[in-house]
């Protein structure tokens, strides 16, 4: 449902309006999160930690695939 949400380019307010910001009347556009956000980085570490402590109940091959994905292996 991300496409329903718009963000004012003027004041930065989030709105469901497609035309203009209800707060300041400025133009709105669909907000796109940055490709690499800090949250993604932390999530990666959380997953790595869970994998290494065995908190994530996955099979060995799944674990290897996740590790390869996360660490950007060949
Ligand atoms: Zn605004």
Automatic annotation (TrEMBL):
Highest taxon above the source species: Archaea
Gene Ontology BP term (one): rRNA processing
Ranges that cross the membrane: none
Keywords, alphabetical: Ribonucleoprotein, Ribosome biogenesis, rRNA processing
GO molecular function, one term: snoRNA binding
Gene Ontology CC: ribonucleoprotein complex
InterPro entries hit by this protein: H/ACA_rnp_Nop10, H/ACA_rnp_Nop10_sf, Nop10_arc-typ
Pfam families, alphabetized: Nop10p (PF04135)
Signal peptide boundaries: none
Family under the similarity heading: Belongs to the NOP10 family.
Function: Involved in ribosome biogenesis; more specifically in 18S rRNA pseudouridylation and in cleavage of pre-rRNA.
NCBIfam families recorded: PRK13130.1 (NF009623)
Protein name: Ribosome biogenesis protein Nop10
Natural source organism: Pyrobaculum islandicum (strain DSM 4184 / JCM 9189 / GEO3)
Lineage: Archaea, Thermoproteota, Thermoprotei, Thermoproteales, Thermoproteaceae
């Amino acid at each position: 449902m991300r496409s329903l949400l718009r963000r004012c380019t003027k004041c930065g307010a989030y709105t469901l309006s497609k035309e203009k910001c209800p707060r300041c009347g400025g133009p709105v556009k669909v907000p796109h999160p940055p490709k690499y956000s800090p949250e993604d980085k932390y999530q990666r570490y959380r997953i790595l930690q869970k994998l290494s402590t065995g908190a994530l109940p996955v099979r060995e091959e799944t674990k290897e695939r996740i590790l390869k994905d996360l660490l950007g292996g060949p």
